[in-house]
Amino acid sequence: MDAKTQKYDRQLRLWGSDGQEALESAHILLVNATAVGCEILKNLVLPGIGQYTVVDQGTVTLSDIGSNFFLDQDSLGKSRAQQTCELLGELNEDVQGHWVAKDIVSLLEENPNYLSDFTLVIATAITLKVAEKIAGLCWQASQDGGNQISFVWVKTVGLIGAVRIAVPEHAVIETHPDNEKLADLRIDSPFPELAAYAKSFDFNTQDSLEFGHIPYVAILLKYMEDWRAEHDSKIPQNYAEKNQLKANIRSGMRTIDDENFDEAFNSALRACNPTVVPSNIKELFQDPKCEALTAKSTHFWIIARAVRDFVEDKEKSSGFLPLSGTIPDMKAQTDSYVTLQSIYKTKAKQDVQEVMNHVKCLLERLGLASDTIAVQEVETFCKFSAFLKVIRYRSIADEYLNPKKKEIASWLEDSYSSPLFPQYVLLRASDAFYDDHGRYPGEGENWEEDVDQLDHNVTTLLQDWGITQENAVPKDLTHEICRYGVGSIHNIASFMGGVVSQEIIKLITHQYIPMNNTFIFDGASSVSNVFDV
Amino acid sequence: MIKIWSMKKDNAGVDKKKPKVSAAQIRVQKDLGELELPKTMKMTFPVPEDLLNFELEISPDEAFYAGGTFKFSFAVNGNYPHDPPKVKCLQKIYHPNIQADGNICLNILREDWKPVLTLNSVMVGLQYLLLEPNADDPLNKEAAEDLRSNRRNFEANVHKSIRGGSVNGVQYDNVMTK
Amino acid sequence: MADMQPSLDTEAAESQRWAGIYKLLDRSSLIHPKFEPVPEIKEFVKSAKILVIGAGGLGCEILKNLALTGFKDIHVIDMDTIDVSNLNRQFLFRRADVGSPKAVTAAAFVNKRVQGVTVTPHYCKIQDKDEDFYREFAIIICGLDSIEARRWINATLVGMVDPEDPDTLKPLIDGGTEGFKGQARVILPGMSSCYECSMDMLSKPTGFPLCTIANTPRLPEHCIEWASVLEWPNQHGERKMDTDDPKDIQWLYETALARAKQYNIQGVTYSLTQGVVKNIIPAIAATNAIIAASCCNEAFKIATTSAKYLDNYMMYSGNDSVYTYTFQHQKKDDCPVCGQSTTKLEFRGDKTLEELMDYLKEKPDAQMKKPSFSLGGKPLYMQAPKQLEEALRPNLSKPLAELFSSGDEISVTDSTLPFSLQLQIDFV
């Protein structure tokens, strides 16, 4: 094991070398070296993000060092961008850090393309106006056909933390479903090699050792085959029939020690679910991006289209997705298990080859080189094809210009499943308060005087959304926000630093599923919520 | 909760040191104290103060292994009953589910252990293994093969082996009850 | 240089430095009406002793968070030394620190970075410390990966509670992570559900049947277990495997690989071998940050009463979106740790153990059937098995004063008790 593999061992077990490579080629921009911003970067520098840049024109104050671990007494009065960049850089010698002691707005005025160097932009402690500007630029860059730039806007206010993600489209192949779900056994529709395998076991003549080691997949196949022979080729249709199949299996046991029959019995219900293309994957196939490929289409959509073409070629696919090729462990002799495993693997490989042929046709049609997409990429895609995920985030402009009034009303009504929506309203109202007063609620000494003003901003917002519900945002909570006075509390900064860095890792590695689109944590009640606003 | 402003230390009542008792120890005390051993079982405690390490002798009065006395060691760790006790056979015996080096293939000693099980469950399991050896999940493959292919022959092999004879070229310990 | 630095100790500097936190502590709340913003709270934060157990992934975060919350007297205990695979998340350590004690290195780093804080390291096992040590602390925060250590500290803190002295109640805040998931919880020993109450929530450690390992391996893990469980003792006799020694891992890997080849099994790698024999749990900085911050936020709320603390469990999962579940885990009546009541009993020291036993059998609110007794884990009298009963029977006729001293606690088990009874006997 080389030194890098040793250092990253505990994370490679989650996202593998592909995920690691994606991290190492990413460049992250942090706007403002706040406590939460530096905590996010800490959690990205440690696992080995490629590069980061800190943009901040401020100098270090006492309250900065009180809540930011990447500043110390020696930093007082110096550039905040420089100081945090250096102390963060000490965390990992493989990571490159940069800093710019300027204000992001003037940087963008100097160079409107400034953001195009980055994979992802994290913005903290910015006003709504600046957020809208950066978010707009990131969104536009993606629309113009350049690299997608994810925008991540983070707020911490006293015991409350919030993060909003905006990226036009995020596609995930490796969603990491449970291993159990990944197994696609095709008991209801065995391919010829699998059917032949099941027939190779003679349930009548085997001695007790052999009988007790017939793999449960073969048991299920046999009992399903017997069932179909008696039921017009249909698999069990309803609860009663499924139970009858289970009873048939149970009655085939020779002794209660035949664990393989137990395994078959326990998997029988699942085996009765007909193999189909899941509805969300069908939707994906109907997506305009899958319909109308162009030379600029991403690999994801080209392969998705190839899989769709494969599924439509019923002779090759029987109308099913490519086989995942993995099977669970089961009671069996080594030989019969290894044989079964290789039957599934071989079929999966054949499917990959078929899909690959479609990929090549598509590439040719699009005028792209035939080696544009590697077979490994197609292999991974096929393996997880039942679990693909595409998230289309709403833009921040959309959130503000076209509020989801219906959903907002129900979020405010249902305080059981959306207890933190009032916090969302208050964070929005605080931005409006800033527009009115040039400061955030509760910042000054006479903090309680801000309560009514903030409440006014809340009322205006609710009116705009057509909310008539009384006390939709309790005034006690408005008072609490003023109590916090946008104070930075390290624990909350660190909590949000963890949450946001998890989300960023998911966005960059294209593994696991990021949240869509706003996450709020309330440190007072230790509760969180996700809203697609 | 914490009455923080009354935290001043009151050193008046000097606390006595309590001897430390772990949950594992008490659980073993409970398991053992409520045991009702059949006549075929006997326990010995090499160090009577130590309830966590002991030996169990089983002298089956029927089936293949009748006439022998079989010794097992039990070692209970501090994580009991979350972890199962570690049990080994102390003699070299000819048995489909027991290896020459003392390893035992008994589901509740590994994959099927649950904290609700007790030391008694394990003892019953061991006794069952001596009464009904299981040829289909072997540790000693040859013994299992013998049992499956020819019960008579297996019985003869057991008879020989527990008297210190050899089977398939392997010599076993004499475990006859004295 | 040093004398040119502004002092951080003045009151004005203090309130600037802790501006965010002091807003919370200086201002009243309508959500938490019981909170009184009195100056003693800030003094308490400065003077309270906090103990951090574990200086690993969670521990490093916890130390940082406590220091930046304004706690000044922090202790950390850890018996481990730094390994290169810690560096992807344990951010107080550098490559040059590999091999050094975690507690010492972590404490030195935080002391240097955060002015005014004193982190005191204890490079030892938690079991090396006695109750006098644990009694010193106001709050204890655990960032451990060992179930056994957690059970030990939990049982110790539950055992320390004296209902007549609120100072003996030490809030225990416990965090744990695995991959993108984790949990944080608050345990008020004796009052809320304790660690032992929730043991059944732990996922079962996967052990494979020995006969599968020995005869019908199917998975690469079966081959690795064969190498470590069955082949290692065959080849190395009494020598124990050292899973931190690359040579031993290499041997296991090669042995497992050879077996896998023989059986046509694919997938034995060095990394998998290490993962199986060391029971490695994936760990990343991000998740540690979430859970540690959650623990420290609860510690802050408990210490300051500025907001309600967690009652009593929060789970976090980041695999698919972000999902948290906050709930009250129920205390178990038959919990072997917090369910066992301690009862005080006055009894004559010149009476025999048998007389005590008869008393417990006849006492209307006890009505025991066949009680067994032990003192500090050593048996005094056992009803079974026969061999023990016989060996211990002479104790029955001994006066209690000969068996233990007045005020000692003995453990009583009986089939009528849900678990056990701790009986503190004062001689009269």
Automatic annotation (TrEMBL), chain A:
Similarity section: Belongs to the ubiquitin-activating E1 family. ULA1 subfamily.
PANTHER family assigned: NEDD8-ACTIVATING ENZYME E1 REGULATORY SUBUNIT (PTHR10953:SF29), UBIQUITIN-ACTIVATING ENZYME E1 (PTHR10953)
Gene that encodes the chain: NAE1
Domain THIF-type NAD/FAD binding fold: 8-521
One GO term (biological process): protein neddylation
Gene3D superfamilies: NAD(P)-binding Rossmann-like Domain
GO MF entries: NEDD8 activating enzyme activity
Naturally occurring in which organism (per UniProt): Podila minutissima
GO cellular component terms, A-Z: cytoplasm
Keywords: Ubl conjugation pathway
Protein name: NEDD8-activating enzyme E1 regulatory subunit
Keyword Iron carried by entry: no
Function: Regulatory subunit of the dimeric UBA3-ULA1 E1 enzyme.
Keyword Plastid: no
Pfam families for this protein: ThiF (PF00899)
Automatic annotation (TrEMBL), chain B:
Coiled-coil blocks: none
Active-site residues, as the UniProt record annotates them: C105 (glycyl thioester intermediate)
Enzyme Commission number: 2.3.2.34
Keyword terms: ATP-binding, Nucleotide-binding, Transferase, Ubl conjugation pathway
Membrane-spanning intervals of the chain: none
Signal peptide feature range: none
Pathway entry: Protein modification; protein neddylation
Enzyme class: transferase
Catalytic reaction(s) noted: [E1 NEDD8-activating enzyme]-S-[NEDD8 protein]-yl-L-cysteine + [E2 NEDD8-conjugating enzyme]-L-cysteine = [E1 NEDD8-activating enzyme]-L-cysteine + [E2 NEDD8-conjugating enzyme]-S-[NEDD8-protein]-yl-L-cysteine
InterPro entries noted in UniProt: Ub_conjugating_enzyme, UBC, UBQ-conjugating_AS, UBQ-conjugating_enzyme/RWD
Occurrences of domain UBC core (ranges): 23-167
Entry annotated with the keyword Aminoacyl-tRNA synthetase: no
Pfam families: UQ_con
Molecular-function GO term, any one: ATP binding
Family: Belongs to the ubiquitin-conjugating enzyme family.
Name of the protein in its database record: NEDD8-conjugating enzyme UBC12
Phylogenetic lineage: Eukaryota, Fungi, Fungi incertae sedis, Mucoromycota, Mortierellomycotina
From TrEMBL, chain C:
Functional summary from the UniProt entry: Catalytic subunit of the dimeric E1 enzyme, which activates NEDD8.
Transmembrane helix listed as a keyword: no
Family matches, as InterPro entries: E2-binding, ThiF/MoeB/HesA, ThiF_NAD_FAD-bd, Ub_act_enz_dom_a_sf, Uba3_N, Ubiquitin-activating_enz, UBQ-activ_enz_E1_Cys_AS
Cited Pfam families: E2_bind, ThiF
GO molecular function list: ATP binding; NEDD8 activating enzyme activity
Protein name, per record: NEDD8-activating enzyme E1 catalytic subunit
E.C. number(s) listed in UniProt: 6.2.1.64
GO biological process: protein neddylation
Keyword ATP-binding: yes
Pathway note: Protein modification; protein neddylation
CDD domains for the chain: Uba3_RUB
Cellular component terms (Gene Ontology): cytoplasm; nucleus
Biological classification of the source: Eukaryota, Fungi, Fungi incertae sedis, Mucoromycota, Mortierellomycotina
Enzyme kind, highest EC tier: ligase
Family of the protein in this entry: Belongs to the ubiquitin-activating E1 family. UBA3 subfamily.
Domain E2 binding residue range list: 345-428
Active-site residues, record numbering mapped to chain: C211
Catalytic activity: ATP + [NEDD8 protein] + [E1 NEDD8-activating enzyme]-L-cysteine = AMP + diphosphate + [E1 NEDD8-activating enzyme]-S-[NEDD8 protein]-yl-L-cysteine
UniProt keyword list: ATP-binding, Ligase, Nucleotide-binding, Ubl conjugation pathway
